[in-house]
Amino acid sequence: MIAAATLPRLLAGIDPSGPLDFHQHELLHGPLPSSREAADLIGDLERAGLRGHGGASFPSARKLQAVAQARGKQIVLINAVEAEPASEKDRLLVECLPHLVLDGAVAAARATGAREIAFAVRDGARDAYGAAARAIAERPRGEPPITLFAIPDSYVGGQETALVNYLSGGPLRPTFTPPRPDEQGINRRPTLVNNAETLAHLALIARNGEQWFRSLGAPGQPGSALVTVAGAVVHPGVYEIEYGSPLASLLTVAGGPLGTPRGVLLGGYAGSWVPYERALEARLDDAELAVLRARVLAGVIFFLGEEACPVAETLRLARWMAGQSARQCGPCLHGLDALADELATIASGHGDGGTLQRLGRLGELTAGRGACAHPDGAVNCLLSALETFEHDFAEHARSGPCAACGLPATLPLPDWHLPDSSPQRRRLRSL
After folding, report:
1. Quick one: pLDDT at residue 37?
2. Which of 412-416's residues contact partners 24+ apart within 8 Å by CB, and which partners?
3. Kind and range of the H or E element at 375?
4. Domains of the chain (ranges plus CATH)?
5. Full-model pTM
6. Which residues are paired to 273 by β-bridges?
7. Range list of β-strands (E), 196-253
8. Where residue 2 falls among pLDDT bands split at 50, 70, 90?
């Protein structure tokens, strides 16, 4: 019998007073299936259609299968770094429901044959780190050992190859693929890398099955997802949605907008800007959002307030994204800085008829050529802003800065810097 198709799923049982301990967690969800039952997990995940919730949306079953079949001592890596500044969903899970995330990692370890779990949390997320440490201490005997790591704050620090490289003793920089982490990951061992939300879904599928998971959602994107609603809304925060639900209904649940937003950023800083009126007509699944050239990605939905200047916000974001580059390949080292310089020319009123053409050419030269997807996402976000706020950019090109240009940034732009690139001694224990 399939359980009722209702929400919340992931967010069930959240207690404002603090994280659920292991006993409370098992009272809510029941015990995790045994090792024998976990052997069928990969098939369950494939039939469920679970995809990664970290942004890339890669099929989860395929990742587990690759690690399970790889030669070597497998390891599972919980990626709870959540380096997208506008996102709070993974941090919420680790702070409030850490055992759901750990259950997913344990189930994945059993299914892939991994005998060790690494748990990576961003250094600045101190509450999440503390909750993870306490939860690890509460886990029952007989499970794979879990090692917790604090990762320096940086935008590319959550990218899986950068994280694997760092935990292997190298710098926090993305690396070229192949080999992929499932082939050669931490210390050259086959590594399953999943973000916190993906593992939480996995834990529930392990208990309830694929039909339960598919009883919610859209045909091509089943299940539910956590989204971070931010910006000009009455009640910003993390919400659990059914894939395919209208964005307008989510906005209503969040208390409605503050004023009339200028536009909506869908997916985060690698996502796309969409005009506010068109966003209200959208449904939250990738097939529906494709018409707007947008995707759910990291689950960020940011409403730009009516008093903000979209040109100034775009320029600030362009400078920040260029500064977050690993600066190890040409597209990031030169392309993102050049894009920001061209945007600055427009914002200052010194643009000419060829400025937009130069931006387009720079975008083509920058995207799709880097060691990781950082330049691709940055280009997509910045060029979508040019299209969505076309009138504002044209007005700035003619007249220069507006009165709102000097206002504080509304997009969160933390003061993060990549750490020193010298190798560090942080290797995991050898089993």
Report:
1. 65
2. 412/85, 412/86, 412/230, 413/85, 413/316, 413/317, 413/320, 414/85, 414/124, 414/153, 416/153, 416/154, 416/155, 416/324
3. helix 374-388
4. 22-214 (3.40.50.11540), 217-304 (3.10.20.600), 310-406 (1.20.1440.230)
5. 0.94
6. 265
7. 217-218, 221-222, 224-231, 237-242
8. very low
